[in-house]
Amino acid sequence: MNQLDVVLGLQWGDEGKGKVVDLLTPNYKVIARFQGGPNAGHSLVFDGDSFVLHTVPSGIFREESMNIIGNGVVIDPVILMEEIEAIEKKAGDISKKLIISKRAHLILPTHRMLDAASEAAKGKSKIGSTLKGIGPTYMDKTGRNGLRIGDIVSGEFEARYNALKEKHLGLLSQYDFQFDITEYEAKWMAAVEKLKRFEFIESELVVNAELQKGTAILAEGAQGSMLDIDFGTYPFVTSSNTMTAGVCTGLGVAPNRVGKVMGIFKAYCTRVGSGPFPTELFDNDGEELRRIGHEFGATTGRPRRCGWLDMVALKYAIMMNGVTELIMMKADVMNDFPTIKACVAYKLNGKELDYFPFEAGDEVEPVYKEFPGWKCDITKVRKYEDFPAELKDYVSWIEAETSCPVKIISVGPDRKEIVIR
């Protein structure tokens, strides 16, 4: 049976998925995003240029590729059109390379206002939303009020839009929150018109038809596994299923159609926004990881919280996703550390746990294993054999702990700075 492969993040997002998908795309004709929205920021660096993709699949710069925005994605037409225009300055017209599911939900200007009002009302218990309207859009989707891409070309679009907008204005009146959507709404309507030059499809039919033909398909996830709405560090999570299971609902494929699952992780950990982070560092090591790794959000610009690798959370994510191979990013950020650490267990209420618990909050204390650092520059290395012994030992230990091979190791931001085993 023909299967599609999956690539996704195993931590709290920002693992470097954009670079990996860009690297993998020559092997795939179809690249399909299956969940999330413009809260994603997939960074690509090549030919001296850097691009941050928010909604468009990361295969868009490859010739001959078909890029699908799946039904599980939520779309802000303004952000999508700005992104498309930026891509077209570099790559020319992409209307033949990008197709959009009719079932993908639209983020309205009032969704953004609801997001901001709700976050402001939470005060100190903010979840760290990117304020892009993602959560309220998924709420309307599950509440069966949503507006979808396919509605754009129906005769009732304006009436449906106005009905949903009025519902939102009623909800917003309950908050002490000042806003004006006039300007953004005008941009939004103009962007909706511009989107009409793209093909709107029944993506589930297209994806399954391509599978039948034996086309190589890569499903691309956004955010990270530990931000999954069901299995992440709730409520400090995103509003969609970021794990492999989300591929089935976000693209309309059966579970037995999933082939390889490539899980991406950083050699350390980062997190943006609020929420549990057992290995977070508040010392000089944390500062150094942030400085050397340029750990600032691709979408928000916010400084990321940094910490050592959390093997407890990583093993949990590997189990939940059915990961078949691992991809390690940013090994080069740890070039200068004399010692590196990895969390191998948690202490909770005096007990040591080797699994990721429901109560994974601030009271969890990490138990560390120490490794000697490699103390040399690995950015020019292109063959695994040429790595320092200390890095090879660290990789071997990760493989033994996870029972998963590390197939790719990134040693810098550029598409060429990679070691493939």
Question: What does this protein look like?
Answer:
- The protein is α/β, with parallel strands linked by helices.
- 30% of the residues lie in helices and 21% in strands.
- The protein has 11 helices and 20 strands.
- It has helices at 17-24, 77-91, 109-122, 134-142, 157-172, 182-195, 203-213, 245-251, 284-292, 311-321, 389-402; strands at residues 4-9, 30-33, 42-46, 49-53, 66-69, 74-75, 98-101, 105-106, 199-201, 217-220, 258-266, 269-271, 305-307, 309-310, 325-329, 339-348, 351-353, 365-372, 406-410, 418-420.
- The chain has a 10-stranded mixed β-sheet with strand order 9-7-5-2-10-1-11-15-19-20, with helices on both faces. Strands 14, 16, 17 and 18 form a 4-stranded mixed β-sheet that branches.
Proportion of residues in β-strands: 15-25%
Distance between the termini: 27 Å
- The number of distinct β-strands equals 20
CA-based shape:
globular
Q: Please tell me the overall pLDDT.
A: 93
Total helices: the number is 11
Low-confidence stretches: none
Q: Tell me the helix content.
A: 25-40%
> Using only CA atoms, what is the Rg?
21 Å
Q: What is the spatial order of strands in the main beta sheet?
A: 9-7-5-2-10-1-11-15-19-20
Helix and strand content put the structural class at: alpha/beta
Largest sheet: 10 strands, mixed
Question: Can you give me a brief rundown of this structure?
Answer:
This protein is α/β, with parallel strands linked by helices. It contains 11 helices and 20 strands.
